[in-house]
Each structure stands twice: as C-alpha cells, then as structure tokens.
Design goal:
The chain is α/β, with parallel strands linked by helices. 48% of the residues lie in helices and 14% in strands. Strand 5 and strand 6 form a beta hairpin. The two termini are 18 Å apart. Bound molecules: adenosine monophosphate.
Length: 209
Amino acid sequence: MNLIFLGPPGAGKGTQAVRVCERLGIPQISTGDILRSAIRNQTPTGLAAKSYIDKGELVPDSVMIDIVRERLAHADCAGGFLLDGFPRTVAQAQALKGFASIDAVIDIDVSDETLVARLSGRRVCPACGGTYHVSRLAGATTCEKCGQTLVQRDDDKAETVLSRLAVYHAQTEPLIGFYTQRGLIRKIDGAQPVDDCFAAILRALGEGK
Ligand code: AMP
C-alpha cells in the first residue's frame, strides 16, 4: 500500500506512522527526519535546509522532490511505503504523481489550539527519535527507551510553532482538496487518544478488525 499522511504539525502523523508501518510492514519515509539527519551530518542539503526549518518555513520544492524521488527508488519501497510530511505543497503533489501512485491519503485533523499545546510541550529523544509530552513525563527528563536526555526541537518553540501552522494552512491544507478530488482522502479525528486514532486509521485503510 502506498500511503500519504497529511495533517498539520503536531497532529500525530509521526506517532501513527510508526505504528501503521510496523503493522503493514512498509517503510516510513519522514521528510522531516531525513532533513534533520542531513543537518546532523552537515551535508550540503542539510546546511541549505537548516535556515528554512529554523524559521518554520518550507524547504524549496525542488530539494524535497529530489529527496523523495531518490528515496522511493530504494528496494524497500517496492512493496509499499508511507510518506510522512510529504507532499506539503500542491507542486510537490503534482511532482509525486510523476513517480509514484498513491492508494490513500490519511488526513489527521486537529484544531490549532490543541496543536499549539501539543507542539510546545513536545520533547524528543535525539538518539532514538522517541516523542513525549511534558504533561506525561511527570518531571522525567530522559528517554524511557534509551536513557538519553530529551530535548525540545528548535522549531517547536512558541514563535516557530505559529509560523509552521500558518505555513500549513496556506501551503499544505490545499492538498486536502487536491486529494479529495481524486477520491483518496480518509479523514481521521486526531484529537482522540492515540490508540483510538490508530484503530480509526486501520479501519479507514480496510485493515481494521
Ligand atoms: P516535520 O518533522 O515533518 O514537521 O518537518 C520539519 C520541517 O522540515 C518543516 O517545518 C519544514 O521546514 C521541513 N520539511 C519537512 N518536509 C518538508 C516538505 N515536504 N516540504 C518542505 N519542507 C519540509
């Protein structure tokens, strides 16, 4: 199954993507993770992308399209894949049509108010990518899976969160119309508990019990 996870930052795309990929045995292709790894490794792409990410802006379409086209050509994508964070503009979606066919687009829907609370309280493990929320950490500051000290992503700081949401509404939300026209959108209430959201996604994909 070739899937896209759409939704604003903080909707839970990453959390749900991990679970869905595990269940379906397909790779999760998170463009945000690819870019953050490029930044850590100081590659030319990473160095170019950093200033956009730090401001909460989108990395140019041409860069993202090349990254995803190259990634989807890997053998592990032959049996399906889940795109998490791509496409984010209509231009990216148009380009994607040229090199992949999509079976379903999961649109995880959450109000802006909830997103701001989620993103500004999000803490991540820089080693394993685990994601937490301060309200559930009970004061803990390390990753329960690998013991690393948790950090706040620079782009989860309050000012950047607001610009990421504005960018989402202006540039990514139009994709809901784009994929609705193609009959691919499956809308999911992202405000429900994580397990319920997962179950709803599986049902929407015809994989639920
Ligand atoms: P994410 O982890 O998906 O929230 O992505 C973090 C940041 O990476 C975004 O705020 C953008 O700056 C950049 N980014 C990730 N995916 C894309 C994309 N498909 N197009 C443009 N920029 C992207």
